[in-house]
Amino acid sequence: MGPLRQPLFLILSIVFGILPLSAKTGEWEILEGARLDKSAYYDGDSFHIRHKGKDYVFRLFYVDTPETDTRYPERIKGQAKYFSISADQTIELGKEAAEFAKDFLRGSFTVYTDWSDGWGYGTRYRAIIMKDGEDLGAALVSNGLARASGFVPDTPWPGYKKSVWDYRNYLNRLKDEAERNEVGGWAMSGRSKKAEEEVAEVTPEESDADGLIDLNTATLEELDTLPRIGPVLASRITEARPFFTLNELDQVIGISTKTIDGMRAFATVVPPPIQPHTALYFRENARYHVNAPVRVSILSLTPLDDWAPEGFSVASADTAYEGIPGGTMRLFAPSEKMKFALERFASLSQPLEVRAWLRDYEGEIILVIY
């Protein structure tokens, strides 16, 4: 049986909310005796695999390992926040995950795939990968090398007697155990994510900001005066804004904990208010809105040269509400509708409220327009 592809149905399902992004596109198939193609690119959760003379690219279900390079800064930022580590540590962790997966996949293994779309450059499919009765995704999460996040299958794979939601809960329990034991990414910062959340944040009213540089409003020239911050890092800081605590600077590539400690006497963070109908709001409150229609206030759209599903285009949506910036999100829409939207926003000077579906794409909160 070959891959059963239904791109038009999948696109319509995404746009109109008929199915989640992990829409089923075929029956489960078992590929026994599969092998990793080490000559092709792979990371901790995506692999080039050979089976009976054919080449495939598979992406693990409900597992997201960190990036191994700096091509996707927004994803790195989210992964860094998840583990409470710096951007540089996130990339280091991603490389560890890739090596772990490479070692796990030595020799032959079994791939369970329903041929659902893996979302990515080229053609790739979702899969569960097992070797000697052990699940690669579960092994990555339990070793603190991956987030329990992303797509779940629509139906259990052959041999799995429980529901797909039991599988998701199982991986989440493994994540909690890895966090408690402080292994992998949870050990990198010397503190667990829970401990990070328990650190009291200093509010603007409680801090003495007199004479300090506010990282959220400072100019490039002002940022350049901070210790160990040159023009390159100053530019990265402005791109990563807004910040809610000074410690969030460790999500900027090239800024270490030592650098942050060195600027505490000179810099502060005055958190911006989180406005409704904005990217910041939906990221903070994603659990209440994911897989549901939302109203988002968009100020401008910038086309992106990123991968998008067939027939779709992607843009960066700059959000704002009542004149206050609210951050950016990636927005996916059918190409014709995206073309119309880009033309319309080019002539606007005020935010426009748009209805879209809020989705969780491998840990990244995105918008899919009607």
TrEMBL record:
Gene3D superfamilies cross-referenced by the UniProt entry: 2.40.50.90, Photosystem II 12 kDa extrinsic protein
InterPro entries in the record: Endo/Exo/Phosphatase_dom_1, RuvA_2-like, SNase_OB-fold_sf, Staphylococal_nuclease_OB-fold
Cellular component aspect of the GO annotation: type II protein secretion system complex
Residue ranges of every copy of the TNase-like domain listed in the record: 43-188
Pfam families: HHH_3, SNase
GO biological process terms, semicolon-separated: protein secretion by the type II secretion system
PANTHER family: ENDONUCLEASE/EXONUCLEASE/PHOSPHATASE FAMILY DOMAIN-CONTAINING PROTEIN 1, ENDONUCLEASE_EXONUCLEASE_PHOSPHATASE FAMILY DOMAIN-CONTAINING PROTEIN 1
Record-given protein name: Helix-hairpin-helix domain-containing protein
Source organism of the structure: Puniceicoccus vermicola
